[in-house]
Known about the structure:
The protein has helices at residues 3-9, 31-39, 73-93, 115-128, 148-156, 171-177, 183-195, 214-226, 258-274, 291-297, 338-346, 360-375, 380-386, 395-406, 427-432; strands spanning 47-53, 55-56, 68-69, 99-107, 130-141, 161-167, 200-207, 231-236, 278-280, 284-286, 302-304, 307-309, 316-319, 324-327, 330-334, 352-357, 377-379, 411-413, 416-418. It is α/β, with parallel strands linked by helices and 449 residues long. It has a 9-stranded mixed sheet with strand order 9-10-8-7-6-5-4-1-13, sandwiched between helices. Strands 14-15-16 form a 3-stranded antiparallel sheet, covered by helices on one side. The chain starts with a helix and ends in a 17-residue tail after the last helix.
Amino acid sequence: MTPELIARYDQRVPRYTSYPTAPYFKPDVSAETYASWLSELAPDRPVSLYLHVPFCAELCLYCGCNTAVTRSYKAVAAYVDCLEREIDLVARHLPGRMAVAHVHWGGGTPTILSPDDLRRISRHLDEAFEIRQDAEIAVEIDPRTITPEHVKALAASGLNRASLGVQDFDPRVQETIRRVQSFEQTARVASWLREAGVSGLNLDLMYGLPYQSVESVKRSVDLALKLDPDRIALFGYAHVPWMKRHQALLPEASLPDSVARVEQREAAAEAFIRAGYVQIGLDHFAKPGDPMAVRQRDGRLHRNFQGYTTDEATALIGFGTSSIGSLPQGYIQNAPTTVAYREAVLKGQLPIVRGVALSDDDRLRRAIIERLMCDFSVDLDEVASEFRSGTDGFAPEIDAIDDLARDGLVIRDGLTLSIPDEGRALVRNVCAVFDRYLESGAQRHSRAL
C-alpha cells in the first residue's frame, strides 16, 4: 500500500462490530422496550451471554474499555450482587429457561472476581439458563493478576477458551503503556490453563503503540508463537484521548505514523501466516483446523461486539455496566457507569439507557457490512433478495464503490464486490460506503489504519 493511499484513506471509520454502531444508539429504546423484546424471543432458539466486569487492578494507558481501577474488593463484591440481580431480572422477562450457546466474560478484568465469586456467578447462570454441553465459555484474562485458584474455579465452571492479554513484550513499550508483563508470566498462565483442560488459547496483541517498530513487533510475534495459541487477535491501537483521557498521558511524539502502523501490521501478519495461521477477516489469525478458520472457509463467520465469532445465536444478552445486547429487534445498552447501573438494578429495573430498533434497511446494510468484514466479498443482489429487497436504491453507493475501485481497494463485477489482498486493511472504508449513519459522527471513531 503506497503512502499516498494511506494518507487518503486513513479516515475515522467504525470497527463495525454492529450496524448501526453504538454511537448512534438513542434513549428512546428503554427498559420497557427491552423487556418486550426479551419476551418475544423464540423459546427454542439458543442465546448467547456476555458479562462485563468494569474493574482492573491498574489502568493501562492504551486502554479503550469501560473500566475503573479499584483497590478494595468491597466494590467488586457489591457488583457481583448486582450481576446476580440483573440475571434474575432478565430471566423474568424471557419466555422460558433459554438454552445458551456462548458465554463470554469481558472487561476490565473478569478475573478480578475472587474464585468463589466466579463460581457463584457461573452457578447462577446455570440456574437461570440451560448452558449447553457444547457451549463455548470464554474469559478475558490479565496474566499479571490471575492465580491457579482462579483457573481451577473457571475450569470447574466449564471454561474452554481463554484470551490472554499481551499487547507487546517489549520492556520499553510495556513501561510506557503501564503494562509490565514478562513472557515468563504469560507462559506460566498458559501452562496453568492447559493443565486445567482449557482447550482454546487466544492471545491479544497490538501494533501502533508508543515506541513500537517493525522489529520490536516481530520480536513480540516470535515470543507469542512460542506459546502456540489457537487464535491471535492483532489490534491497532486507537488513540482517542478526547474520549479516553488517560491516553493523553502517552507520549504522542512516540506514536508511529500511519505508514509505520501499516508496516507493523503487515510484518506481524506475514509472520503469523508463515507460521501456518490463517488470516481471519481484518485482525484475527487462527490455526487451519480451528472452528473460526473452518467457519470462514464455509462462509459462516460472524462478527459481534467481541469481534469475529463462530457464534450463530440471533440473540446476545449483555449483563453488567455498559454491556450491549443484540436481539432480533435491535440493540440495547446498559448504563455506562457502575453507579447508574447499580441504582437501576437495586430498584428492580432493567438498567437500559439507550439502543436502536432495527429497520429493514438497517438489517440489509448490516448483512452487507458483515459479509464484507468476514468474507471480503459480497453479492449485493443475493443479499438483497434474502431480505426481499431490491438494489435500485444503491446507486450512490455503487458510485462511491467505483471511486474506491479506481484506487484498487475493491473490485466490482456487476453487483458483486470483492476486496483484493492489497485492499483488505481498508475493508472498513469499503463498509463505510453502506453506512447511512456515519456522516454525523465520524469523530467518535478510530482511524482506519
